[in-house]
Each structure stands twice: as structure tokens, then as C-alpha cells.
Amino acid sequence: MGLSLRVSKQTHNHMAAKQVFYEGRVQGVGFRYATKREAMGFDVCGWITNLPDGRVEMQVMGNDDEVEDFLVAVREGQMGGNIRGEEEHYIADLGGVSGFSIR
To answer: d(Cα 56, Cα 73) in Å, to the nearest integer?
Structure first.
């Protein structure tokens, strides 16, 4: 009789909000639009915008696991190769934001 091993993934059910700054070739290449399309596959809300210094800022909120999975998808998605730097910070709840928009 063989030994059976069962592994369960611990889930984080609390909400998380993050501010992320992306550096690299992230303006003028469709990065914001690709990120918005990527967000449609996740239960997250927030927004993304270009900054005057050439970076892109995103604020995203949702279940902690959804936010983390979404950020991985952005890094590994079609525009991920354009990212040369990324800075993440936990922030306060985005209050009143629904959906994911481009600003």
C-alpha cells in the first residue's frame, strides 16, 4: 500500500491594495491597454496611468491572492519584456473604485 501525500494551498482571504510603479519601455507601446485587458481575467479593481517621468503607475485592489496573481500575469504577459524595473507598495483601500480603468 502506497503512502499518499496531500498538499493544500493556504489561501489569503483578506483584501490588499497595492501601488506599483513600472519602469522601462512602458509608455507609447500599449502597456496600459494590455494591463487593462489582463485585469479582465482577475477579480481586481483599480487604475493605471502614465507619469511625466516615463514610468507607469498602477493602483490595484482585490483579494490578496488575486492581486498577487494579477501582478505576476502583468510581469509574464505580452508586455512583460518591456518592464525594466518595478516598485511595489501596500497602500490604503482604494475606496469607491470599481472595475479597472486607464487614466
So the answer is: 16
Which of 63, 65, 72, 73 minimizes the C-alpha distance to 93?
63
Supply the pTM of this predicted model: 0.85
DSSP tally for the chain: helices H, then strands E: 2, 5
Q: Please report, as a single letter, which amino acid is at residue 54.
A: G
Fold entry, domain 15-102? Alpha-Beta Plaits (3.30.70)
Enumerate the β-bridge partners of residue 87: 21
- Write the CA distances from 72 to 2, 24, 39, 77, 78, integer angstroms: 36, 17, 11, 8, 12
Give whole-number Cα distances, 16 to 12, 28, 67, in Å: 10, 29, 7
Give pLDDT tens digits for 9-57.
445 568 899 999 999 999 999 999 999 999 999 999 999 999 999 999 9
Residues known to be catalytic = 32, 50
